[in-house]
Amino acid sequence: MYNVKGNIRKVQASLPDDVRLVAVSKFHPNEYVMAAYEEGQRVFGESHEQEIKQKYATLPHDIEWHFIGHLQTNKVKYIAPYISMIEAVDSMKLLKEINKQAEKNSRVIKVLIELHIAEEEAKYGFTLDACRQMLEEGEWREMKNVQICGLMMMASFVKDESQVENEMMQAANFFDEVKTKYFADDETFCERSWGMSSDYHIALKCRSTMVRIGTTIFGPRVY
After folding, report:
1. Which of 20, 63, 88, 95 counts the most CB atoms within 10 A of its CB?
2. So what's the pLDDT on residue 124?
3. What are the C-alpha distances in Å from 210 to residues 34, 45, 64, 145, 152?
4. Is the pTM here over 0.85, yes or no?
5. How many Å is the Cα radius of gyration of the chain?
6. Which alpha helices (H) appear in 110-205, and where do they start and end?
């Protein structure tokens, strides 16, 4: 087996106390998840409804499952009974559906609003102006079964570290703006989720509170 235990210990040791690790376990087998679990890891990231369903059913139930990929609205109902956090809310339509399915399951589901800052068309998320407009319109305030806990973004996948840092700092500064204007009295709005295997060392300089790391821990994906 890939040296999951050694790898996750190194990653855990490299993170400040105020930064949480989401171990991205998608496309990796249960035994890899359990190896990380045995090292104290409890938060895992998945992005496919069928795979996360199987893992939820067969792995310890104190695991916090984060849905980290693009989520189609018609898939929300399948994960709503147990998902801990949906990290990539990229539309008001999706936020409404999460609220609806959470209510059906008598739950409040934590979410992060995804920002589209990277200069890549393939990325999902709200532009900064679209996010401002969505928050200003205020429909989210009526949604009692979702809890907006912060923002997430993916930086451009480029070698230019200054570009990556610039994009992450845009997100960090925007977090401050949104926190002050809309969530000043909400202690749960505190998460800044950016940083992956290739750039989490930069994210730590850009006030990230949550990094999503897969390859560095689990190695190449097992399809």
Report:
1. 88
2. 87
3. 21, 12, 14, 23, 9
4. yes
5. 17
6. 128-137, 161-182, 200-203
Confidence of residue 201 (pLDDT cuts 50, 70, 90): very high
pLDDT confidence band for 149 (50 / 70 / 90): very high
Yes or no: say if 86 and 46 are a contact pair by the CB < 8 Å rule: no
Q: Which two tokens stand for residue 34?
A: 């359990």
Spatial contact of 45 and 25, defined as CB atoms under 8 Å apart: yes
Q: Average pLDDT in the 113-117 region?
A: 96
Average pLDDT over residues 45-59: 97
Give CA–CA dist 72/50, Å, rounded.
13
Q: How many residues belong to the chain?
A: 223
- Read off the tokens for 180: 């002050």
What pLDDT was estimated at residue 222? 66
Give the separation between CA 200 and CA 196, rounded to whole angstroms. Answer: 5
- Is residue 155 pLDDT above 80, yes or no? yes
Bridge-based pairing of strands 43-46 and 191-193 is: unpaired
User: Six-digit token pair at 17?
Assistant: 């106390």
Cα–Cα distance, 35 to 117 (Å, whole number): 35
